[in-house]
Amino acid sequence: MELRNKIARDITWILLSWSAWFVPILVIVYVAFKIMGGEVEINQQNIDQVTFFTFAYHPSKIFMLVIGIIHVSGFLPFFAKQGVTRRDYFFGSGISSVLVSLMLMISAGFVTLVENILFPVIETEFIISAEAPWYLTATVFTLNLLVYFMAGWLIGAGFYRFGGIGGMLYIAIAIVMVLFSSMFWEGEEKHPLNCPFGLSNLRDLPPSVSLMGTFLLIAVMLWIVRATTRSVRIKMK
Amino acid sequence: MSYDVDVNQVTVKYGSFEALKRVSLHLESGKIYGLIGRNGAGKSTLLSLLASFREPTEGKVRIGGREAFENRDVMSQVTLVYETDYSEETEKVKGMLEAAERYRPHFDRQYADELVELFNLPLEKQVKKLSRGMQAALNVTIGLANRSPITIFDEAYLGMDAPTREIFYKKLLEDHAKHPRTIILSTHLVSEMEYLFEEVVIIHKGNVLLQEPMDRLMERGASITGPDQVVEDFCSDMTQLSTQRLGGTKSVVVYGELTEEKRREASQRGLEVGPVSLQDLFIHLTSGEKGVEIDGTSK
């Protein structure tokens, strides 16, 4: 347990040092867009009517996706060289992904708090809805970052183990997973997706079911990542 | 606790290609082993098994009696040093040493600092900005300072210049004397490194051709030096590995144990009998398609 915590701490530290670049850049872009005003629309949202929290949601998901994609090839050989097993790498990374998602959510929340004090925004766009309590919004923010990290991790694991063609299959799996997750939280989409598999009724699910569904997605992706990396050959490069 | 290595009937396949073919090997802990073989012989594959970098397709790899693959207690005690692609490594030298210190139970920081100084490694420089030789020196520094009970150097010297390699060999011997552990040196530079080996494993086309203590192996051949014609007569019925001529003097390296009788005869005829080099033996033993049959000791 102690070893896994150490691995989690070390990976988290590195990822947070990257986030320390990402969040300020996001703030700068946000401020620039705010100055430009209503001309700027992001995801069909008018920039004048969103807070930083809502603005940061989509870029943060992409950030986590990218981290996930490079995770296996970047960290696994490094840890194997230190005599760490694939299993310990997996658990350490899992813990660290939760911590990083939480930290990003908290950072976005903190910037939004400051923003609300300095320049209050009259919001019309929300991650879930205007009525959703803050803790649910925070949970959904964090969970969806995790979903995107897992999707990236899945892709990276697939490519590391199977190379090009096998990796493509993992991209397909990841896309399906992300589609499911966005169906669970359809409120985030201004123009809902045309849901695949005729599952459009998922849009009206109560949050508790959506939460359960998201947890399930994360569990499935974790399982696939573990199964893929369980005995993967570490490349000596 | 012992860290004897037992490789039992191990086969490794890459698709339909067999990189190792039912290989069995026992490495007693505490010795310095030379693992030699030609390109593609299966050296790195064998070593990556010991470090749990891959799983055997068939057979078992045990270290200290325990299955090696994905075993935390075993993996943490094995260090595999190889030429690593650091072209994207933004971490500094210092950071790499700290990482090893965090994860390696026997890491000796003071010794690492001593080696850093010896190799002139710049602590504050990013690893990707180091020359190839410096990167190799960093790898070797970590490999030695880890003090892992099983330490493997897979052509770790690549890129190092001759003086740096000499420092590496010297330090390796010194540290092994102070802290005995299993060290496996996989190499192409046979003539340069042979004095380091206590035992030699020759691997050829996925098979272990022989495993023998160095002194025993040296008895498998001899160099015969003397007047041209006398040497030629003396060696006529022996397997000759190489010949050198200088003026009227000829030196022939022969393969096969020299009997007492033969040695006496050589001395009577004024011939000088010297040791054979591992390099000559290696080239000879791995020259054919299947390598030379080794009487009685073939594994």
Please explain how this structure is put together.
Chain B: GO terms for molecular function: ATP binding; ATP hydrolysis activity. Chain B: This is ABC-2 type transport system ATP-binding protein. Chain B: Keywords: ATP-binding, Nucleotide-binding. Chain B: InterPro entries: AAA+_ATPase, ABC_transporter-like_ATP-bd, P-loop_NTPase. The complex is a heterodimer of chains A (237) and B (299). Chain A is mostly helical and 237 residues long. Chain A has one domain (2-229). Chain A has five helices and two strands. In chain A, strands 1-2 form a two-stranded antiparallel sheet. In chain A, helix 1 (2-36) packs antiparallel against helix 2 and helix 1 runs parallel beside helix 3 (86-118). Mean pLDDT of chain A is 87; it is low at 188-193. By secondary structure, chain B is α/β, with parallel strands linked by helices. Chain B has two domains: 5-216, P-loop containing nucleotide triphosphate hydrolases (Rossmann fold); 221-275, Alpha-Beta Plaits, CATH 3.30.70.240. In chain B, 33% of the residues lie in helices and 30% in strands. Chain B is built from eleven helices and 14 strands. Chain B has helices at residues 43-50, 72-75, 93-103, 109-118, 132-145, 162-178, 190-193, 214-218, 228-235, 260-268, 278-285; strands at residues 5-14, 17-27, 32-36, 58-63, 66-67, 78-82, 150-154, 182-187, 199-204, 207-213, 221-227, 239-246, 249-255, 272-275. In chain B, helix 4 (109-118) packs antiparallel against helix 5 and helix 5 (132-145) runs parallel beside helix 6. The interface between A and B is medium-sized, with 19 and 27 residues.
The best one-word shape of chain A is: globular
Number of domains of chain B: 2
Q: Low-confidence segments of chain B, ≥5 residues, pLDDT <50?
A: 295-299
Quote the beta fraction of chain A: under 5%
Strand segment count of chain A: 2
Shape of chain B: globular
What is the arithmetic mean of pLDDT of chain B?
91
Order of helices and strands of chain B: EEEHEEHEHHHEHEHEEHEHEEHEH
Quickly count the domains of chain A: 1
Task: Give helix and strand order of chain A, one letter per element, not per position.
Answer: HEEHHHH
Structural class of chain B: alpha/beta
Characterize the largest beta sheet of chain A: strand count, sense, and whether it forms a barrel: 2 strands, antiparallel
